[in-house]
Amino acid sequence: AVLCEKTENKTADNYIFQYTNTPLYTQRYEALIKLAELQKTNPSAKKCLINALHDNAYHIREFAIRKLEIPKADTAKIYATIETLARKDKSSWVRKAAIEKLSNSPKDSSYTSLFENSIGDSSYEVAGASLKALNEVNSAKALQVAKQFENEKDNNIVTAVADIYAKQGDSLYQSYFSDRLHNSSELSKYYLFYYYANYLTR
Is the separation of the CB atoms in 37 and 63 below 8 Å? Predict the structure, then answer.
């Protein structure tokens, strides 16, 4: 049941004030959603998203990482902050988001060692994202590492290995897809078919 429909008519300054001054998670998160939409035309909105990288709530830090369009000013400083979050944040969600953001950065190859080290993260989500990121900067190394994870059953790892093999497009990896498609859960198969289709086209 829909309890209510809320309509707000707030300015960017209102949302900035809301994010900056409320201790409540939901109100900060709702403000950031609007500020993310306004960041292209409002420098103050973008500044709020940058500040949110240090928010106490991990879900807000993750949201800020994913939605922030890195400004040309202070680019190096912001990427350094995201790299620190990838290495040290307590939340696996934040570490994963940071890895994925860095993998799409103009200098993604400079994070090769970070991606490689993060494959050993305690979180499967982070490990899978790191393996995919490594494949973007060093496919030969990623292929070597992927072979060590062929027997893993977690979806994050399975899809990472499948992504690497799909991009190789070599007939050697047909057995991996065949085995996984015959011995995985329905949910795993759902994810695998995307990568298998990419593999077959190559």
Answer: no
Query: Which DSSP symbol is given to 32?
Result: H
Q: How far apart are CA 165 and CA 194, in angstroms?
A: 12
Query: How do the residues of the chain divide into helix, strand and coil, expressed in percent and rounded to 5?
Result: 75, 0, 25
d(CA 128, CA 121): 9
With contact defined as beta carbons under 8 Å apart, do 158 and 179 qualify?
no
Helix or strand run (H / E) with residue 199: helix 186-201
Give the pLDDT of the chain (202 residues) as one tens digit per residue.
999 998 999 999 999 999 999 999 999 999 999 999 999 999 999 999 999 999 999 999 999 999 999 988 889 999 999 999 999 999 999 999 999 999 988 877 899 999 999 999 999 999 999 999 999 999 999 999 999 999 998 999 999 999 999 999 999 999 999 999 998 888 889 989 999 999 999 9
Which DSSP string corresponds to 104-161?
TSTTGGGGHHHHHHHTT-SSHHHHHHHHHHHHHH-HHHHHHHHGGGTT---HHHHHHH
Handedness of CA 54, 57, 58, 63 (dihedral sign): negative
C-beta separation of 20 from 49 below 8 A: no
